[in-house]
Amino acid sequence: MNQFTIAVVGCGRIANLAHFPAFEKMGNVRVKYACDLIPEKAQLVKDKYPFVEQVITDYHIALADPEVTAVYVLTPNYGHYSVSMDALRAGKHVFCEKPITVNYKLSAEMAEEAKKRNLLLNIGVVNRYNRSVELIKQYIAEGKLGNVYHVYCSFRSFRSIPGLGGPFTDKSQAGGGVLIDWGIHFLDLILFALGSPALESVTCDTYSEMAKDMKTYHYHGMWAENTKNVETGVNDVEDFVTGYIRTSGASISFNGAWAQNVEKDEMFVDFLGDKAGIRLDYGGQFHFTNGDTLATEDTEHEMPNPTVAEDTAFLEATLTGEENRIYVGNILESAKLLDALYRSADLHRELRGEEI
Questions:
Q1: Which residue among 8, 38, 131, 237 is buried most deeply as judged by most CB within 10 Å?
Q2: Which residues contact 337 (CB under 8 A, 6 or more apart)?
Q3: Burial (CB count within 10 angstroms: exposed 0-12, middle 13-18, buried 19+), residue 186
Q4: Could you read off the pLDDT of 102-156 as tens digits, one per residue?
Q5: What is the rounded distance in angstroms from the CA atom of residue 327 to the CA atom of residue 314?
């Protein structure tokens, strides 16, 4: 088994919930440096995982270490560009969590830097390694759904704006709200399953209605609550988004809400074909309905840990140079789509063709 020596920059939520547990399962990852501006966060992972060796607050220490071959960038969105670019310039392969960064222009610059230096830059769009998504992509390619003419997705939750007033709701740090936070996962898996059709037109509307007064906002749940700052913080991102996308293949429509006054979470994707249809329960199994028999089959396939799969694929690719399914060049179209949707919302009109 190949052994990998890496550094992790950012020891917050996604590091603790996804990547460090994945490294533990993989058993061949040596985290020489756990870096966070808040050293206590890095110390917590060091205390928990024996494969974590050193705690630092300056990631440049890790970049200067020739033993470190790859860097995981798990910071808030605004840090993705600077840390990733520094790591690439230091000759390190980079795994950067989604979104690539806060806008398409900077994302394209990151991709170009990786290409210029012949290094890997992979992006954490983990659903590309979700077994249900892989099977749906296979079903579509095999023609089991016939002509897939439309896809609808919903990523809506009841009163759950994350870290209100903190980095999640500050556009200068996050780049946007529910669309860039949740929407990227849904829209990217759709483009992946459909075989990356060309974008033809987009239209989008965004709303920030639920926490106009942060101090009086009532919430049902709030992840990243330890980052909230309702006294002096900023909330200038959308909590609701709706849009419509035309591609060279299927059309796509969506509604997304961090917070809504409907006491129901609705997280699913519907693939509509003329022979059959699929509803994907986000993060879980899917339901296949045959248009001839009108029977619905509820799948019960195994669901391997997708983070383990994406981390394994990235680290193995650092040895082979393979540009796999989460290589930045394969994710740029999703970043381009997000950028176009936000511009459409700002301009209050549809964007077509070269405007995208």
A1: 8
A2: 187, 191, 199, 202, 245, 356
A3: buried
A4: 999 999 999 999 999 999 999 999 999 999 999 999 999 999 999 999 999 999 9
A5: 8
